Amino acid sequence: MRRLASAGQLLRRQQLRGVASSSSSRLVAARADGGDVHLQYADGGHCTFHHAWLRDNCANLRHPSSRQKLRSATRIPGLSIGAMHAEDDSLHITWAPDGVSSAFDATWLRTLGDSISAHATPEAAAEDGAVPMSLPRFSYDELAHGGEPALWRWLSQLRQDGVTLLEGVPCEPELVEQVASLIGPVQPQIYGNAWSVVSQKDAINIAYTGEPLELHMDLMYYESPPGLQLLHCLAFDDGVEGGESTMVDAFAIAERFRREEPEAFATLARVPATFVKDHSDRAEPVLMSYQRSHLALDARSQLVGVFWSPPFEGPLLAPAADAAAYYDAYPKLQAAIDAAPALTHRLRPGEMMVFNNRRMLHGRKGFVQNGDAMRHLRGCYVNIDEFANRLNLLRRRYGASAAAADAPPPSMAHLGNQECGGDARARAAASRVVNVLTPEPTC
């Protein structure tokens, strides 16, 4: 396996790629104050780390090839700083009581320090952004032949806006899975790896009828609901009346709801709803349920999840007092969703809509198929963590150059996999190409 670059090599590469300017990465002072280490940079920026954090993230505690941690700094009794000095591109520490030396890349520390500072914000700043009223469009041919740079431009836009439209996708049933494989493996679920959305008699899902679909997320009765959803239009004949797709940004709505209805927001973040799929009489029986709140918060009260799927809600399992609060709050959130401006698009054959099922609510207007006219979509899912994995790898390779080429910058727009979002400083920190591994040890 290729060994990681040294601290100096990492810094030079980062500077060449534009991750940080020389003034922002140049470390001018370091001092210890009790258990904390305070770093001062040439541009006036500063970061603070606990000394145990520094030793715990030192490369000499990691296996040289796997980069997995060999042991925790908490296992070193009496750990303290014996000596410390700063150079332009690195921080050097000699540790007591074992005399081990560590060197930390100054740019790496600055990037992680900014991220830690951003995540310390007790509550995310509310985002007023919503789904764009015109779909960001990408060419299938560009993705098929443009390699990773084209994939980076597409996926960074998808992360930013929550939805994109691919054009010129051949109308072949297997193409939806092939496009998904550019991101990660297809996520299997109860409808198979891929499925067809067509109106049919005795449908096992209302999606397989011409009925309108309210705004919702798919498969909320899973412990880990699908991440990205891909819908490839194979047929949408002129004789089909209606059937337009609709979409809104659930996180933008929820943040606005937090400001306007704080008590209702708190209730829907506290009282768990029940999501159920009960279809035990189908060829492949399904009986699934999961309890979760409609709004999920982390320890800092940041919104990290929205779960909304009215067609699959089961009995609320809550005491009467909680039920009263829930049924007072629920219609208020429903009204906020109904009032939100929605993107509406009539798919055309050869178009593929790709969106974040953990962030966006999607729906459909009812439709009628006249004569032999047909509406046929082919769909599949990709796990949200596979999406995050692919995006992180591409950002490390192409983030700086892509930004220079006027590509949309990565943002902290919610992925729905417990990622912190909303805070402007967190978004800025995430836009950098972060090497989350420590530099090679110099000891």
Would you mind describing this structure in some detail?
About 30% of the residues lie in helices and about 25% in strands. It has about 450 residues and is of the alpha+beta class. It has two domains: about 5-120, NE0471 N-terminal domain-like (2-Layer Sandwich), CATH 3.30.2020.30; about 165-385, Clavaminate synthase-like (Double-stranded beta-helix, 4-Layer Sandwich). The strands form seven sheets. Strands 7-8-19-11-22-9 form a six-stranded mixed β-sheet. Strands 10-20-13-18 form a four-stranded antiparallel β-sheet. Strands 1-2-3 form a three-stranded antiparallel β-sheet. The two termini are about 20 Å apart.
| CATH hierarchy class name of the largest domain | Alpha Beta
Which percent range describes the beta-strand content? 25-35%
Fraction of helical residues: 25-40%
Question: Any idea what the CATH architecture of the largest domain is?
Answer: 4-Layer Sandwich
How many beta-strand segments?
22
Radius of gyration: 25 Å
Count of all domains = 2
Number of helices: 12
CATH-assigned fold name of the largest domain = Double-stranded beta-helix
